[in-house]
Design goal:
A hairpin with a 2-residue loop joins β6 and β7. With 318 residues, the chain is an alpha/beta fold. The protein has 2 domains: 30 residues; 281 residues, SGNH hydrolase (Rossmann fold, 3-Layer(aba) Sandwich). It has 13 helices and 7 strands. The protein is globular.
């Protein structure tokens, strides 16, 4: 019996050692989470404009078309909860920072991290990757989500193999300034105009969604107060969407968006909101799917508009 238990103990130690070695090895493989966090850390004293948020900006805000000292730190699927954590860590360490850009559009104030926890199958992956590679735990502070083996579906075995021969951009899924490389017109699917269509179901009747709304209002309010405290310009953008998506958005939802903006302006009246949902001039070639501009034509078409906004008001630290 003792010999059997000894073998079990030795086997368990070997498995645990392999487990730990695997997790540690993954730390040395670049990915979009570690790359964007490290870029901010390495350039925090020079950056003037920081783009945050989700894929609506990660796909199509190209810093190379806007000027210098700009970085796109947005990431697909990111909840505004993590934007707040990032700002809390860095806004006080960025002496040259003049402006932060965030997305805000219809229903964003419902689809927060608490909603994803219940409905989004990628939730544990997001939780793991932000914890392990950016250092931001979710509200419950559950430490075991650090493990990719236990919590992540981010294809970690393939990432280890890819690191041996693939270029950095394939590992990070973004270019050197943070633009997502896979959201191009060449990679979109044939039915792109029906992909990721917004919900046309009324949302205001749900008690749970109301709680998500209240939680997100708190998070957005903290962000606008942070910007105010650090005298940093804060710009919210509602990006252009294709007609198939626009047809599913009603006047009440647009009114609700304006109302949300007015509520967060109570905490910082200087925030700017630009609504491009109905912006003219965008055609089929500018979109990646029904609600995202692509990183080729769409990014180039939107860049002059954003550049005018950035140049419209000169910001400086006081």
């Amino acid at each position: 019996m003792k010999r059997f238990l000894k073998k079990i103990l030795i086997y368990s130690i070997i498995v645990m050692a392999i487990f730990i070695a695997y997790e540690v090895a993954l730390l040395f493989v670049p990915n979009e989470y570690s790359y964007k966090k490290n870029y901010i850390e390495d350039h925090k004293h020079q950056l003037k404009v920081l783009v945050l948020g989700n894929s609506h900006l990660a796909d199509c805000i190209d810093p190379s078309l806007l000027g210098d000292s700009i970085f796109n730190a947005a990431q697909p699927g990111r909840s505004v909860y993590y934007d707040l954590q990032l700002l809390k860590e860095y806004i006080g360490q960025m002496p040259q920072l003049e402006c932060v850009i965030l997305p805000l559009s219809v229903d964003y104030y419902y689809w927060g991290h608490r909603f994803e926890k219940v409905h989004e199958p990628k939730f544990t992956t997001y939780r793991c990757m932000y914890h392990k590679y950016m250092g931001y735990t979710y509200e419950d502070k559950e430490w075991w989500h650090w493990s990719e083996i236990l919590s992540s579906f981010y294809n970690h075995p393939a990432r280890l193999v890819d690191a041996l021969y693939k270029p950095l951009t394939d590992l990070t899924m973004c270019d050197s300034l943070g633009v997502e490389i896979d959201a191009s017109i060449d990679t979109r699917k044939d039915d792109w105009y029906n992909q990721q269509l917004p919900s046309d179901t009324p949302l205001n009747d749900s008690t749970k969604l109301h709680l998500y709304y209240v939680n997100n209002l708190r998070i957005y309010s903290e962000i606008v107060m942070l910007a105010r405290a650090h005298k940093t310009r804060l710009i919210f953008l509602a990006m252009p969407i294709y007609k198939t998506a626009r047809q599913r958005i009603n006047s009440y939802q647009l009114h609700e968006l304006d109302l949300f903006v007015q509520r967060i302006k109570r905490f910082n009246p200087n925030i700017e909101f630009y609504n491009f949902i109905d912006a003219p001039g965008y055609t089929e070639q500018d979109y990646y799917n029904s609600i995202h501009l692509n990183n080729t034509h769409g990014a180039r078409k939107f860049a002059p508009t954003l550049k005018r906004i950035l140049n419209n008001r000169q910001c400086s630290k006081r």
